[in-house]
Amino acid sequence: MAYAHDIDAKHAPNDLEAFWVPFTANRAFKKRPRLVTGAKDMHYTAANGHKVLDAAAGLWCINPGHNRAPIVEAIRKQAGEMDFAPSFQFSHPRAFTLASRIAELAPGDLDHVFFCNSGSEAVDTALKIALAYHNVSGNAGRTRLIGRERGYHGVGFGGISVGGMVANRKQFGTALAGTDHLPATYNREKQAFTKGEPEWGAERADALENLVALHDASTIAAVIVEPMSGSTGVLPPPKGYLKRLREICDKYGILLIFDEVITGYGRLGYAFAAERYGVVPDMITFAKGVTAGAVPMGGVIARKGIYDAFMKGPEHVIELFHGYTYSAHPLAVAAGLATLDLYKQEDLFNRTKKLEPLWYDTAMSLKSLPGVLDIRCVGLTCGIDLAPRKDFPGKRGYESLEYAFHDLGMMIRTAGDTLAVSPPLIVSEAQIGEIFEKLGKVIKSIQ
Length: 447
Ligand SMILES: Cc1ncc(COP(=O)(O)O)c(C=O)c1O
What we know:
Blueprint: H1 26-31, E1 36-40, E2 43-46, E3 51-54, H2 57-60, H3 69-81, H4 93-105, E4 110-116, H5 119-136, E5 144-148, H6 157-162, H7 166-169, E6 179-182, H8 188-191, H9 207-215, E7 220-225, H10 241-252, E8 255-259, H11 273-276, E9 283-286, E10 298-303, H12 304-310, H13 330-345, H14 348-364, E11 372-378, E12 381-386, H15 395-406, E13 410-411, E14 413-415, E15 418-421, H16 429-445
Parallel strand pairs: 3-13, 5-6, 5-7, 7-8, 8-9
Antiparallel strand pairs: 1-2, 2-3, 4-10, 9-10, 11-12, 12-15, 14-15
Helix pairs in contact: 3-13, 4-13, 5-12, 14-16
Pyridoxal-5'-phosphate is lined by residues 60, 118-120, 123, 152-154, 226, 230-231, 259, 261-262, 287.
Protein backbone atom coordinates (compact mmCIF):
# COMPACT_ATOMS: atom_id res chain seq x y z
CA MET A 1 0.00 0.00 0.00
CA ALA A 2 1.20 3.48 -0.78
CA TYR A 3 0.70 6.32 1.65
CA ALA A 4 1.04 10.03 1.12
CA HIS A 5 4.03 11.11 3.19
CA ASP A 6 4.59 14.78 2.57
CA ILE A 7 1.07 16.05 3.19
CA ASP A 8 -0.41 17.23 6.45
CA ALA A 9 -2.27 14.75 8.66
CA LYS A 10 -5.68 16.36 8.16
CA HIS A 11 -5.56 15.79 4.41
CA ALA A 12 -3.69 12.49 4.23
CA PRO A 13 -5.70 9.78 2.50
CA ASN A 14 -5.39 6.36 4.14
CA ASP A 15 -4.55 4.57 0.98
CA LEU A 16 -3.63 5.77 -2.48
CA GLU A 17 -4.05 2.43 -4.21
CA ALA A 18 -7.75 2.30 -5.10
CA PHE A 19 -7.90 5.40 -7.29
CA TRP A 20 -6.53 4.56 -10.75
CA VAL A 21 -5.48 8.09 -11.64
CA PRO A 22 -6.23 9.04 -15.27
CA PHE A 23 -3.50 10.10 -17.72
CA THR A 24 -1.02 9.78 -14.85
CA ALA A 25 2.07 7.71 -14.08
CA ASN A 26 0.37 6.03 -11.12
CA ARG A 27 3.40 4.43 -9.49
CA ALA A 28 5.48 7.58 -9.56
CA PHE A 29 2.51 9.70 -8.47
CA LYS A 30 1.68 7.47 -5.52
CA LYS A 31 5.26 7.61 -4.28
CA ARG A 32 5.10 11.39 -4.15
CA PRO A 33 1.54 12.57 -4.78
CA ARG A 34 0.65 16.02 -5.93
CA LEU A 35 -2.54 16.69 -3.98
CA VAL A 36 -4.47 19.94 -3.75
CA THR A 37 -7.17 20.66 -1.23
CA GLY A 38 -8.30 24.23 -1.82
CA ALA A 39 -8.35 26.90 -4.54
CA LYS A 40 -8.97 30.62 -4.90
CA ASP A 41 -8.43 32.89 -7.90
CA MET A 42 -4.91 32.19 -9.24
CA HIS A 43 -3.85 29.65 -6.62
CA TYR A 44 -4.36 26.17 -5.32
CA THR A 45 -3.53 25.15 -1.79
CA ALA A 46 -1.44 21.99 -1.74
CA ALA A 47 -2.19 19.31 0.83
CA ASN A 48 0.85 20.40 2.85
CA GLY A 49 -0.65 23.88 3.12
CA HIS A 50 1.63 25.55 0.56
CA LYS A 51 0.24 27.92 -2.05
CA VAL A 52 0.56 26.77 -5.65
CA LEU A 53 0.35 29.22 -8.55
CA ASP A 54 -1.99 27.70 -11.12
CA ALA A 55 -0.25 28.21 -14.47
CA ALA A 56 -2.44 25.56 -16.11
CA ALA A 57 -5.95 26.88 -15.33
CA GLY A 58 -6.50 23.52 -13.64
CA LEU A 59 -6.62 21.59 -16.88
CA TRP A 60 -7.15 24.45 -19.36
CA CYS A 61 -10.56 25.16 -17.83
CA ILE A 62 -10.55 27.65 -14.94
CA ASN A 63 -10.60 30.68 -17.25
CA PRO A 64 -12.10 33.22 -14.79
CA GLY A 65 -10.00 31.95 -11.85
CA HIS A 66 -10.84 29.55 -9.05
CA ASN A 67 -13.85 29.56 -6.76
CA ARG A 68 -15.21 32.85 -7.96
CA ALA A 69 -17.99 33.93 -5.62
CA PRO A 70 -20.80 34.40 -8.20
CA ILE A 71 -20.21 30.93 -9.66
CA VAL A 72 -20.04 29.28 -6.24
CA GLU A 73 -23.21 31.08 -5.17
CA ALA A 74 -25.10 30.14 -8.37
CA ILE A 75 -24.26 26.46 -7.88
CA ARG A 76 -25.27 26.59 -4.21
CA LYS A 77 -28.57 28.27 -5.03
CA GLN A 78 -29.39 25.83 -7.81
CA ALA A 79 -28.56 22.83 -5.62
CA GLY A 80 -31.08 24.08 -3.08
CA GLU A 81 -33.80 24.66 -5.69
CA MET A 82 -33.67 21.65 -8.00
CA ASP A 83 -31.11 18.88 -8.04
CA PHE A 84 -31.82 17.30 -11.40
CA ALA A 85 -34.14 17.69 -14.38
CA PRO A 86 -34.29 15.07 -17.12
CA SER A 87 -33.29 16.29 -20.54
CA PHE A 88 -35.14 13.62 -22.50
CA GLN A 89 -38.71 14.83 -23.19
CA PHE A 90 -38.42 17.39 -20.33
CA SER A 91 -36.12 20.26 -19.51
CA HIS A 92 -35.77 23.36 -17.35
CA PRO A 93 -35.90 27.05 -18.31
CA ARG A 94 -32.30 27.99 -17.57
CA ALA A 95 -31.04 25.37 -20.04
CA PHE A 96 -32.68 27.37 -22.83
CA THR A 97 -31.26 30.62 -21.51
CA LEU A 98 -27.74 29.19 -21.45
CA ALA A 99 -28.09 27.75 -24.96
CA SER A 100 -29.19 31.18 -26.25
CA ARG A 101 -26.32 32.90 -24.47
CA ILE A 102 -23.78 30.48 -25.97
CA ALA A 103 -25.29 30.80 -29.44
CA GLU A 104 -25.04 34.61 -29.12
CA LEU A 105 -21.33 34.31 -28.40
CA ALA A 106 -20.71 32.08 -31.41
CA PRO A 107 -20.14 33.64 -34.84
CA GLY A 108 -22.44 33.48 -37.89
CA ASP A 109 -25.44 31.19 -37.82
CA LEU A 110 -24.01 28.83 -35.20
CA ASP A 111 -27.39 29.00 -33.49
CA HIS A 112 -28.17 25.67 -31.85
CA VAL A 113 -26.57 24.07 -28.80
CA PHE A 114 -26.56 20.39 -27.84
CA PHE A 115 -25.41 19.84 -24.24
CA CYS A 116 -23.32 17.00 -22.86
CA ASN A 117 -20.83 16.66 -19.99
CA SER A 118 -17.28 16.72 -21.30
CA GLY A 119 -15.10 17.51 -24.26
CA SER A 120 -14.93 13.85 -25.26
CA GLU A 121 -18.70 13.61 -25.33
CA ALA A 122 -18.88 16.86 -27.27
CA VAL A 123 -16.57 15.47 -29.93
CA ASP A 124 -18.44 12.19 -30.26
CA THR A 125 -21.70 14.15 -30.38
CA ALA A 126 -20.41 16.40 -33.19
CA LEU A 127 -19.14 13.43 -35.20
CA LYS A 128 -22.50 11.68 -34.79
CA ILE A 129 -24.42 14.82 -35.78
CA ALA A 130 -22.23 15.09 -38.89
CA LEU A 131 -23.02 11.50 -39.92
CA ALA A 132 -26.73 11.89 -39.12
CA TYR A 133 -26.90 15.21 -40.97
CA HIS A 134 -25.66 13.63 -44.17
CA ASN A 135 -27.98 10.71 -43.56
CA VAL A 136 -31.10 12.88 -43.28
CA SER A 137 -29.92 15.00 -46.22
CA GLY A 138 -29.85 12.06 -48.63
CA ASN A 139 -26.07 11.62 -48.50
CA ALA A 140 -25.85 8.51 -46.33
CA GLY A 141 -22.68 7.48 -48.18
CA ARG A 142 -20.76 10.29 -46.50
CA THR A 143 -19.39 8.40 -43.54
CA ARG A 144 -15.66 9.08 -43.50
CA LEU A 145 -14.31 11.29 -40.70
CA ILE A 146 -11.06 13.19 -41.10
CA GLY A 147 -8.90 14.35 -38.20
CA ARG A 148 -5.31 15.52 -38.03
CA GLU A 149 -2.00 14.18 -36.84
CA ARG A 150 -1.14 15.58 -33.40
CA GLY A 151 -4.82 16.37 -32.82
CA TYR A 152 -6.49 15.63 -29.48
CA HIS A 153 -10.22 15.14 -29.37
CA GLY A 154 -10.72 13.40 -26.07
CA VAL A 155 -10.86 9.74 -25.29
CA GLY A 156 -14.11 8.36 -26.69
CA PHE A 157 -13.80 5.94 -29.59
CA GLY A 158 -14.78 8.69 -32.01
CA GLY A 159 -12.30 11.12 -30.50
CA ILE A 160 -9.33 8.74 -30.53
CA SER A 161 -10.16 7.66 -34.09
CA VAL A 162 -9.89 11.18 -35.48
CA GLY A 163 -7.24 12.13 -32.93
CA GLY A 164 -3.60 12.00 -33.87
CA MET A 165 -1.66 11.16 -30.72
CA VAL A 166 -0.16 7.72 -30.99
CA ALA A 167 -0.10 6.90 -27.28
CA ASN A 168 -3.85 7.55 -27.07
CA ARG A 169 -4.54 5.16 -29.95
CA LYS A 170 -2.09 2.31 -30.01
CA GLN A 171 -3.50 0.26 -27.11
CA PHE A 172 -7.12 0.44 -28.18
CA GLY A 173 -7.49 -1.73 -31.22
CA THR A 174 -8.67 -0.41 -34.54
CA ALA A 175 -11.13 2.15 -33.14
CA LEU A 176 -13.56 3.49 -35.77
CA ALA A 177 -13.20 2.30 -39.32
CA GLY A 178 -13.24 4.86 -42.12
CA THR A 179 -11.15 7.64 -40.65
CA ASP A 180 -8.16 9.44 -42.10
CA HIS A 181 -5.84 12.25 -41.06
CA LEU A 182 -4.46 15.51 -42.37
CA PRO A 183 -0.78 16.14 -41.65
CA ALA A 184 0.13 18.17 -38.56
CA THR A 185 0.88 21.82 -39.22
CA TYR A 186 4.02 22.01 -37.12
CA ASN A 187 7.50 22.29 -38.62
CA ARG A 188 10.24 23.41 -36.23
CA GLU A 189 12.68 24.37 -38.96
CA LYS A 190 10.21 26.76 -40.52
CA GLN A 191 8.65 28.30 -37.44
CA ALA A 192 10.70 27.93 -34.26
CA PHE A 193 10.21 30.79 -31.77
CA THR A 194 7.30 32.40 -33.63
CA LYS A 195 5.03 34.63 -31.57
CA GLY A 196 1.44 33.77 -32.41
CA GLU A 197 0.48 32.19 -35.74
CA PRO A 198 3.41 31.09 -37.94
CA GLU A 199 3.75 32.46 -41.48
CA TRP A 200 4.53 29.04 -42.84
CA GLY A 201 2.09 26.17 -43.26
CA ALA A 202 -1.23 27.31 -44.79
CA GLU A 203 -0.52 24.94 -47.67
CA ARG A 204 -0.75 22.01 -45.27
CA ALA A 205 -4.54 22.40 -45.64
CA ASP A 206 -4.19 21.32 -49.28
CA ALA A 207 -3.63 17.78 -48.05
CA LEU A 208 -7.43 17.65 -47.81
CA GLU A 209 -7.48 17.78 -51.62
CA ASN A 210 -5.33 14.64 -51.63
CA LEU A 211 -7.71 12.87 -49.24
CA VAL A 212 -10.63 13.84 -51.47
CA ALA A 213 -8.74 12.45 -54.46
CA LEU A 214 -8.06 9.24 -52.52
CA HIS A 215 -11.49 8.61 -50.98
CA ASP A 216 -13.83 10.77 -53.10
CA ALA A 217 -15.78 13.63 -51.56
CA SER A 218 -18.99 11.59 -51.70
CA THR A 219 -17.63 9.38 -48.89
CA ILE A 220 -16.40 12.15 -46.56
CA ALA A 221 -18.70 13.48 -43.83
CA ALA A 222 -16.56 15.89 -41.87
CA VAL A 223 -13.16 17.26 -40.97
CA ILE A 224 -12.41 18.00 -37.33
CA VAL A 225 -9.47 20.09 -36.12
CA GLU A 226 -8.53 22.09 -33.07
CA PRO A 227 -7.94 25.70 -34.18
CA MET A 228 -4.92 25.55 -31.84
CA SER A 229 -3.80 22.09 -30.76
CA GLY A 230 -3.33 22.36 -27.01
CA SER A 231 -2.67 18.88 -25.73
CA THR A 232 0.23 18.17 -28.06
CA GLY A 233 2.03 21.18 -26.70
CA VAL A 234 0.40 24.35 -28.10
CA LEU A 235 0.49 24.40 -31.90
CA PRO A 236 -0.99 27.67 -33.18
CA PRO A 237 -2.47 27.40 -36.68
CA PRO A 238 -0.40 28.77 -39.56
CA LYS A 239 -1.72 32.05 -40.95
CA GLY A 240 -4.48 31.34 -43.48
CA TYR A 241 -4.60 27.60 -42.77
CA LEU A 242 -8.11 27.47 -41.29
CA LYS A 243 -9.55 29.67 -44.05
CA ARG A 244 -8.07 27.34 -46.65
CA LEU A 245 -9.55 24.34 -44.89
CA ARG A 246 -12.96 26.05 -44.89
CA GLU A 247 -12.70 26.75 -48.63
CA ILE A 248 -11.83 23.16 -49.48
CA CYS A 249 -14.63 21.81 -47.25
CA ASP A 250 -17.10 24.14 -48.98
CA LYS A 251 -15.90 23.07 -52.41
CA TYR A 252 -16.72 19.42 -51.62
CA GLY A 253 -19.72 19.68 -49.25
CA ILE A 254 -17.68 18.45 -46.29
CA LEU A 255 -18.63 19.67 -42.81
CA LEU A 256 -15.94 21.49 -40.85
CA ILE A 257 -15.85 21.03 -37.07
CA PHE A 258 -13.69 23.17 -34.80
CA ASP A 259 -12.87 21.46 -31.54
CA GLU A 260 -12.76 24.47 -29.23
CA VAL A 261 -12.69 22.59 -25.94
CA ILE A 262 -9.53 24.52 -25.04
CA THR A 263 -9.76 27.55 -27.30
CA GLY A 264 -13.37 28.39 -26.40
CA TYR A 265 -14.34 31.00 -23.79
CA GLY A 266 -11.51 33.43 -24.11
CA ARG A 267 -8.29 31.43 -24.17
CA LEU A 268 -7.24 33.11 -27.45
CA GLY A 269 -8.77 36.50 -26.67
CA TYR A 270 -12.16 35.81 -28.26
CA ALA A 271 -15.26 33.89 -27.22
CA PHE A 272 -14.22 31.31 -29.80
CA ALA A 273 -11.09 30.94 -31.93
CA ALA A 274 -13.42 30.81 -34.95
CA GLU A 275 -13.85 34.56 -34.45
CA ARG A 276 -10.12 35.20 -34.09
CA TYR A 277 -9.48 33.44 -37.39
CA GLY A 278 -12.52 34.81 -39.24
CA VAL A 279 -13.79 31.33 -40.13
CA VAL A 280 -17.28 29.99 -39.40
CA PRO A 281 -17.16 26.22 -39.01
CA ASP A 282 -20.29 24.06 -39.27
CA MET A 283 -19.99 22.97 -35.66
CA ILE A 284 -18.00 24.00 -32.61
CA THR A 285 -17.36 21.67 -29.70
CA PHE A 286 -16.85 23.22 -26.28
CA ALA A 287 -16.42 22.20 -22.61
CA LYS A 288 -13.98 23.33 -19.88
CA GLY A 289 -14.30 27.15 -19.79
CA VAL A 290 -18.09 27.13 -20.22
CA THR A 291 -18.50 26.42 -16.50
CA ALA A 292 -14.98 27.42 -15.43
CA GLY A 293 -14.53 23.74 -14.61
CA ALA A 294 -16.76 24.08 -11.55
CA VAL A 295 -19.33 21.53 -12.80
CA PRO A 296 -18.70 19.24 -15.78
CA MET A 297 -20.32 20.41 -18.99
CA GLY A 298 -19.64 20.17 -22.70
CA GLY A 299 -21.59 20.81 -25.83
CA VAL A 300 -21.82 21.26 -29.58
CA ILE A 301 -22.91 24.44 -31.34
CA ALA A 302 -24.37 23.67 -34.78
CA ARG A 303 -25.20 25.94 -37.68
CA LYS A 304 -28.83 26.63 -38.39
CA GLY A 305 -28.81 24.58 -41.60
CA ILE A 306 -27.69 21.49 -39.72
CA TYR A 307 -30.39 21.77 -37.06
CA ASP A 308 -33.05 22.59 -39.65
CA ALA A 309 -32.17 19.51 -41.70
CA PHE A 310 -33.44 17.36 -38.81
CA MET A 311 -36.64 19.33 -38.17
CA LYS A 312 -38.91 17.49 -40.55
CA GLY A 313 -41.28 14.52 -40.51
CA PRO A 314 -44.01 13.90 -37.90
CA GLU A 315 -43.63 16.30 -34.97
CA HIS A 316 -44.01 13.70 -32.23
CA VAL A 317 -41.01 11.73 -33.48
CA ILE A 318 -37.55 12.26 -31.96
CA GLU A 319 -35.31 13.85 -34.58
CA LEU A 320 -31.89 12.85 -33.22
CA PHE A 321 -31.47 9.67 -31.21
CA HIS A 322 -28.67 10.96 -29.03
CA GLY A 323 -28.28 12.50 -25.58
CA TYR A 324 -26.95 11.98 -22.07
CA THR A 325 -28.75 11.60 -18.74
CA TYR A 326 -26.90 14.65 -17.51
CA SER A 327 -27.23 16.82 -20.64
CA ALA A 328 -27.95 20.38 -19.39
CA HIS A 329 -27.67 19.31 -15.75
CA PRO A 330 -29.12 22.14 -13.62
CA LEU A 331 -25.91 22.62 -11.60
CA ALA A 332 -23.82 22.85 -14.77
CA VAL A 333 -26.30 25.25 -16.34
CA ALA A 334 -26.26 27.47 -13.24
CA ALA A 335 -22.46 27.44 -13.24
CA GLY A 336 -22.43 28.18 -16.98
CA LEU A 337 -24.71 31.21 -16.71
CA ALA A 338 -22.71 32.67 -13.83
CA THR A 339 -19.44 32.02 -15.68
CA LEU A 340 -20.62 33.76 -18.85
CA ASP A 341 -21.75 36.73 -16.74
CA LEU A 342 -18.30 36.96 -15.20
CA TYR A 343 -16.55 36.87 -18.59
CA LYS A 344 -18.73 39.77 -19.68
CA GLN A 345 -18.58 41.85 -16.50
CA GLU A 346 -14.80 41.60 -16.30
CA ASP A 347 -14.26 41.80 -20.06
CA LEU A 348 -11.93 38.83 -19.73
CA PHE A 349 -11.69 37.97 -23.42
CA ASN A 350 -10.47 41.47 -24.33
CA ARG A 351 -8.20 41.45 -21.30
CA THR A 352 -6.57 38.32 -22.70
CA LYS A 353 -6.05 39.98 -26.07
CA LYS A 354 -4.40 42.98 -24.40
CA LEU A 355 -2.07 40.77 -22.36
CA GLU A 356 -0.83 38.91 -25.43
CA PRO A 357 2.22 41.10 -26.28
CA LEU A 358 3.52 40.98 -22.71
CA TRP A 359 2.84 37.24 -22.51
CA TYR A 360 4.68 36.60 -25.80
CA ASP A 361 7.69 38.75 -24.88
CA THR A 362 8.02 37.23 -21.42
CA ALA A 363 7.73 33.72 -22.86
CA MET A 364 10.44 34.40 -25.44
CA SER A 365 12.82 35.60 -22.72
CA LEU A 366 13.54 31.90 -22.08
CA LYS A 367 14.65 31.33 -25.67
CA SER A 368 18.37 31.12 -25.02
CA LEU A 369 18.21 28.78 -22.03
CA PRO A 370 20.01 25.47 -22.53
CA GLY A 371 18.04 22.75 -24.27
CA VAL A 372 15.11 24.96 -25.31
CA LEU A 373 14.23 23.86 -28.85
CA ASP A 374 11.18 26.00 -29.46
CA ILE A 375 8.73 28.31 -27.71
CA ARG A 376 5.23 28.78 -29.14
CA CYS A 377 2.52 31.03 -27.83
CA VAL A 378 -0.91 32.23 -28.84
CA GLY A 379 -3.54 33.91 -26.67
CA LEU A 380 -2.72 33.04 -23.07
CA THR A 381 -1.06 29.74 -23.91
CA CYS A 382 2.56 28.76 -24.28
CA GLY A 383 4.39 25.54 -25.15
CA ILE A 384 8.11 25.09 -24.59
CA ASP A 385 9.88 22.15 -26.23
CA LEU A 386 12.84 20.86 -24.24
CA ALA A 387 15.52 18.61 -25.64
CA PRO A 388 14.67 15.09 -24.44
CA ARG A 389 17.23 13.11 -22.48
CA LYS A 390 18.93 10.49 -24.54
CA ASP A 391 17.10 7.16 -24.14
CA PHE A 392 14.51 8.65 -21.75
CA PRO A 393 12.02 10.73 -23.76
CA GLY A 394 9.45 12.36 -21.48
CA LYS A 395 11.55 12.07 -18.31
CA ARG A 396 12.75 15.65 -18.38
CA GLY A 397 9.16 16.79 -18.80
CA TYR A 398 7.98 14.64 -15.91
CA GLU A 399 10.72 15.84 -13.58
CA SER A 400 9.93 19.43 -14.57
CA LEU A 401 6.30 18.94 -13.57
CA GLU A 402 7.33 17.49 -10.20
CA TYR A 403 9.96 20.13 -9.53
CA ALA A 404 7.60 22.98 -10.45
CA PHE A 405 4.94 21.67 -8.07
CA HIS A 406 6.95 20.48 -5.09
CA ASP A 407 9.85 22.91 -5.13
CA LEU A 408 8.54 26.05 -6.81
CA GLY A 409 4.83 25.94 -5.93
CA MET A 410 3.53 26.10 -9.51
CA MET A 411 1.21 23.84 -11.48
CA ILE A 412 2.09 23.33 -15.15
CA ARG A 413 1.14 20.79 -17.82
CA THR A 414 3.53 18.66 -19.78
CA ALA A 415 3.22 16.67 -22.99
CA GLY A 416 6.32 14.50 -23.20
CA ASP A 417 9.20 16.95 -22.93
CA THR A 418 7.05 19.95 -23.79
CA LEU A 419 6.06 22.25 -20.93
CA ALA A 420 2.69 23.96 -21.38
CA VAL A 421 1.20 26.88 -19.50
CA SER A 422 -2.23 28.50 -19.80
CA PRO A 423 -3.10 30.48 -16.67
CA PRO A 424 -6.55 31.73 -15.70
CA LEU A 425 -7.42 34.84 -17.72
CA ILE A 426 -7.28 36.97 -14.54
CA VAL A 427 -3.50 36.47 -14.32
CA SER A 428 -1.74 39.71 -13.31
CA GLU A 429 1.26 41.14 -15.13
CA ALA A 430 3.39 40.32 -12.08
CA GLN A 431 2.14 36.73 -12.12
CA ILE A 432 3.06 36.44 -15.81
CA GLY A 433 6.58 37.39 -14.75
CA GLU A 434 6.46 34.84 -11.92
CA ILE A 435 5.30 32.03 -14.24
CA PHE A 436 8.16 32.48 -16.69
CA GLU A 437 10.73 33.15 -13.99
CA LYS A 438 9.79 29.85 -12.39
CA LEU A 439 9.78 28.10 -15.76
CA GLY A 440 13.29 29.43 -16.28
CA LYS A 441 14.32 27.89 -12.97
CA VAL A 442 12.73 24.59 -13.98
CA ILE A 443 14.54 24.55 -17.32
CA LYS A 444 17.91 25.35 -15.74
CA SER A 445 17.51 22.85 -12.89
CA ILE A 446 16.09 19.86 -14.78
CA GLN A 447 18.67 19.07 -17.42
C1 LIG B 1 -9.43 19.86 -27.98
C2 LIG B 1 -9.97 18.91 -26.96
N1 LIG B 1 -11.01 18.12 -27.25
C3 LIG B 1 -11.52 17.27 -26.37
C4 LIG B 1 -11.00 17.17 -25.10
C5 LIG B 1 -11.57 16.18 -24.14
O1 LIG B 1 -12.23 16.82 -23.10
P1 LIG B 1 -12.63 16.00 -21.78
O2 LIG B 1 -11.36 15.66 -21.08
O3 LIG B 1 -13.51 16.96 -21.04
O4 LIG B 1 -13.37 14.79 -22.23
C6 LIG B 1 -9.93 17.98 -24.74
C7 LIG B 1 -9.35 17.90 -23.39
O5 LIG B 1 -8.35 18.49 -23.07
C8 LIG B 1 -9.39 18.86 -25.69
O6 LIG B 1 -8.33 19.62 -25.41
